[in-house]
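Assess this:
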Amino acid sequence: MAVKPSYMGPRLKRIRRDLSLTQAKMAEDLDVSPSYIALMERNQRPVTADLLLRLARTYAVDLADLAGGEDEEAAARMQAALRNPLFADIDLPALDVADIATSYPGFAEAFLRLDLAHSEEQLALAERAGEDGEPAMGASDPVAEARAFLAARRNSFPLLDASAAAVAADGADARSLSDRIAERHGLRVEIADEALMRGALRYHDYHRRRIMIHEGLEPASRAFQLALQLAVLEQSQPIEDLLAEGRFSGEDARLLARRALQSYWAAALLMPFDAFARAARQLRYDIALLAARFAVSFEQAAHRLTTLQRPGSDAVPFFFLRIDRAGNVSKRLDGAGFPFAAHGGRCPLWNIHHAFDRPGCIDVQRVELPDGERYLSIARTVEAGGLTWNGPRTTRAVALVCRAADAPRLVYGDGLKEGAEPIGLACRICHRPRCIARSAPPVGRELLPNRFKDAGLPFAFVGE
């Protein structure tokens, strides 16, 4: 079978350097001109199938070494890291980045580790900051540390995606998962009543060798609980390996991060990466249809959409937020590296707060931050609890957010009116004038006296 000609200049250069050859010597060995070698190394000429085979024969090179999958992934990760505004004034051509990733893999890995550590530290500082932007004093925050761990990695863990997809190939419905638990782990799955479960959703009865699932759970939740159980049983070592890369000040933060990775794997099992990403594009990111196709909840489908930012992926980047009626954030997931994701959630003008007015209905809003960045926000309420008539239950609101520029790729962008609702990150750091919803004056602004005029605003300040 003929090999397609392809551009692989940096990999060709690496092979030549590894063999300590000059361009002239390699040209002589391959019966081509030195200038042709130079053009191929600069990606100005393809490496033809014939030349590729000559390379393999002449230097005993494995064709797989020229495939360069890992090099391409490293280059894609470096390109993503170099989009940081810190490097905005430096000219870094894509070919040079690819050359570094291929020719100097050790340096590339060192750069990526440094970038990851820098991202984690920046996110940790942002999470520890108070509303006025000043660092909060006191003990470390395990929730913030766990969120920083996920956000620094753009909530994407390809190794977990790959292992979950392998398991999903044998079936990802409740029956298939129950069979796997029984066959591989000798545990039978039972649907148990409330009297036995006492409010628990899932219970591993170690001595009786059984996994009990609460009878009140809907089918989607039953499958998710079984997937979570498999994550505990089968993914302990891969998850611990990932946690070893993190920086946690205590066991609580590590525990929360471990739970998040277990949930990640469970979601990847029910919604395999390739199939889910393909369906998201086909359905134009219609969350309700995605939830129906993969037999999951609205929140699970929305959550999964934040995990598709694998290097080279063309998926729309999203971040996800979940709040209660008091505005407390109970889940924050960022698969895109948006500043809004790290700090947003406190502005009452954002539609995530309006979702409680219309339970179960999807609300779409285009918003604009003070810096001019625009986003598309899809918000809806979700329910939790209520397994029995008098059991505890709660209503929360979730929002899935992407850049407004991506709105045409989403079904939610169809027919959306122009313009955007001006919102802020938090009142203390928002300097928008004449905001009737403001709960506090912005830091550093002098309040206006109202001796002769009442502006009708909670806090009128100089400059309005």
